Amino acid sequence: MKIPVKNLDGTEKGDYQVSVALVEGGRGTQAVHDVIVAYQANQRSGTASTKTMGEVAGTGRKPWKQKGTGRARAGSFQSPLWRGGGVVFGPKPRDFGKKVTRKTKQLALRKALTERLNAGDILVVDDLKLDSPKTKGLVEVLRNLELAEKTALVVAQEVEDNLRLASRNLQQVEVTTSDALNTYQLLRFDRVVFSRGAFQKLEQRLGAEPGEELTTESTEDTEQEDLTVETVKTTRKAAPKAKTAKTSRVAKKKRTKTAPKAKKAEKTRKKKK
Description:
By secondary structure, the chain is an alpha/beta fold.
């Protein structure tokens, strides 16, 4: 797949050949869902808190006597039925965080990148260096790239001060790096603008699925383990079983049991003769 490459003035400079393996078909949709749900859950502070009946400040005196007033019986000023009383089953501080495996995160990011590439929402810019930290300069660049009226995610290899300062006053623009890019950011904005170096770095990040790469040390270790297993098996087959004290006792008992039987057999033969 090829992506158009443009300069900051909007002129086309060629195409960029995508080398990362794309995730086609329905594979990865559940991973995207799990990662986004976990990301949004982890953004929650979980500080909502209410007071129960025992935590509300107040006296423990009974409001009025149990009988004789004609009013409904009451036992506490902190009753949940009263204004200013405690809250029944109210929220308490808790952790909403969810964990997702590393493989699931990488699969979700690859799936999100594939969908945005197929939709034509990704644009590669040759360089993202700005001359000044003025917002007017970044707005002009977005206008040249036909992104003035759309939300945009700008992904740079390294966020420079000029780019950071120029983008912080634009509500529809967010700047990040290829190392910090996540699935939620990749799917949230209308367009995604990469610098050439940032896209290459993202391809290195997604170059191989977890578990595919095998180092030379790991292969040598596996070969040594296989050799040790084979040698253990051969030694078990070749080595004869050593006689233990228990087996020798059993053999002696068998000999003592068979001796009187042989004597009886000899006596019967002599009688017959």
